[in-house]
Amino acid sequence: MHSELDRGTSRLRDIARRVMRERDLQPDFAPAALAQANALRGPAGAGDSALRDLRDLLWASIDNDDSLDLDQLSVAQSLPDGTVKILVAIADVDAAVARGTPIDQHAACNTTSVYTAAQVFSMLPERLSTDLTSLAQDQDRLAIVIDMVIDPHGQVLHCELYRAQVRNRAKLAYNGVAAWLNDAAPMPSPIAAVAGMEAQLRLQDRLAASLKQLRHAHGALSLETREARPIFAAGVLRDLAPDAPNRAKELIEDFMIAANTATARRLDAARVPSLRRVLREPERWNRIVALAAALGTRLPEVPSAVELNRFLLQRHAQDPAGFEDLSLSIVKLLGRGEYVLERPGAPDPGHFGLALNDYTHSTAPNRRYPDLLTQRLVKAVLAGAPTPYTDAELATLAAHCTVQEDNAAKVERFVRKSAAALLLEGRIGQRFDGIVTGASPKGTWVRVSSPTTEGKIVRGYAGLEVGDRVRVELLHTDVDRGFIDFATVR
Fold this sequence. Notes:
By secondary structure, the chain is of the alpha+beta class. The protein has 13 helices and 18 strands.
């Protein structure tokens, strides 16, 4: 049994640590950072008279079943004129992590938590992220609140940001809430335990739907992709299975997009430089056009999010079973997002996938450094203090965060492939149906299922393009190098 445990966890953990170092990510906290965390006596206190006391509201968190690093809470209130007020509370991590301290230096190096199939390498010490700066249930915590009034059509009519003290009344999980909202399972017990929480969540669900509908009307892309998550049993790796989207995840996503947009606009209104999260118009639009043409739809020659989303909605209706594969192909062709410096009044490259011109990352400061940077900018604006970073500093940090996010994604992908290689070691010669996810001079890649993973097509790749469906045979695996090699089968 011990060898199986090593096979499922220890070997992958060693691989993850090695690859992190190769990608300029630190798997371990420096002694000074751990000492700083251990010296904290408790969560940041409420010693500021400007703080609003919102602990009596029906705040709740919705996250993964096993998540303890809770970054956000939400609560909604119906108003007499038919509008709804939604409040999103974001953990005030800056209150415990001052700029330039050892913990901040580690966070500034990695810039993100790294979620591998073997272990989560948290951006902040767990004493903070899962306790002192987590919006844990039944605990008083400091937060930045994004307070928005939204009309029945999903339009934000008014927004205000301020600091407050909050208290999570119910720690909820995506799967349980989604199944309940879909009438597929009983109400989760944490909802039933709090008077008024059921009506509260149903109001939030309706509000999220209106936000989504308006966003997609403006051209936000309706994509459906699934990330493979490791499945362990008694410590042994058993599978890599896709983590399906669900209604509760979409609810939180809709609120976070609204909160990030509101935060970006507040910083712009204050005329201070800030970080923006952008996704530029796709350079490989011609391949997207060709992909749509092969499915009977003509897209314009110049990138259009509205037209692309119309095509996606049409395909979802016509071929729901194949929509995930189509979504994956589109995501690959869109390219990666990046962080950039936004100077007041300067043109904003915008986020093509969300069809937004004002967008930042602010809602996950326990897990992403750009969100912590944005939080410091917001707090300075609220306090009437000078901006804590110069333009040059923000530009350098934006570029570094983009690079490290890409490095973290490569580490996560490498370890997933190592995990898949473990699962596939005894299946050489087996055949799989797959979809081409990458085609460039560097190589051609295919995604297969059972386990859900990507591998390289090393034979028979000539002429293949992203989105092509292929039949492949497994030729070779190398766990330590994360190699899974296939050949096409005609």
